[in-house]
Amino acid sequence: MRHEKVIRKALITEKADRLREMNCYQFEVAPNANKHDIKEAVEKLFNVTVIDVKTANFRGKPKRLGLSSGYKTGYKKATVTLKSGQKIELIEGV
């Protein structure tokens, strides 16, 4: 799998801000990506050393609009811990 396809976007939330202080970054990743793919993609795209990768799958929540009902799309989230002293500049500036 190509590195650009593994990482979809960086997650910018209050929890992600607190985790950045501990040198952890959160990304939305492709649902079929495993931890090895995520680690390799982050290391190649951002030129950093990854120590740990944790993943979590989120199911889509049921939503309704009038009589129509359906589900929001689910996603997979990865929390990546970097070697101390390193950071991802693109996310720090947000």
TrEMBL record:
Instruction: Give Gene Ontology CC terms.
Output: ribonucleoprotein complex; ribosome
Gene Ontology MF terms: rRNA binding; structural constituent of ribosome
**Record GO biological process:** translation
Task: Answer yes or no on keyword Mitochondrion.
Answer: no
InterPro entries cross-referenced by the UniProt entry: Nucleotide-bd_a/b_plait_sf, Ribosomal_uL23-like, Ribosomal_uL23/eL15/eS24_sf, Ribosomal_uL23_CS
Tell me the keywords, alphabetical order: Ribonucleoprotein, Ribosomal protein, RNA-binding, rRNA-binding
In its keyword annotation, does this UniProt entry include Ribosomal protein? yes
PROSITE patterns in UniProt? RIBOSOMAL_L23
Q: Which SUPFAM superfamilies match?
A: Ribosomal proteins S24e, L23 and L15e
**Superkingdom of origin:** Bacteria
As for family, the record states: Belongs to the universal ribosomal protein uL23 family.
Q: HAMAP family, per this entry?
A: Ribosomal_uL23_B
Q: How does it assemble?
A: Part of the 50S ribosomal subunit. Contacts protein L29, and trigger factor when it is bound to the ribosome.
Could you tell me what this protein does?
One of the early assembly proteins it binds 23S rRNA. One of the proteins that surrounds the polypeptide exit tunnel on the outside of the ribosome. Forms the main docking site for trigger factor binding to the ribosome.
Protein name, as recorded: Large ribosomal subunit protein uL23
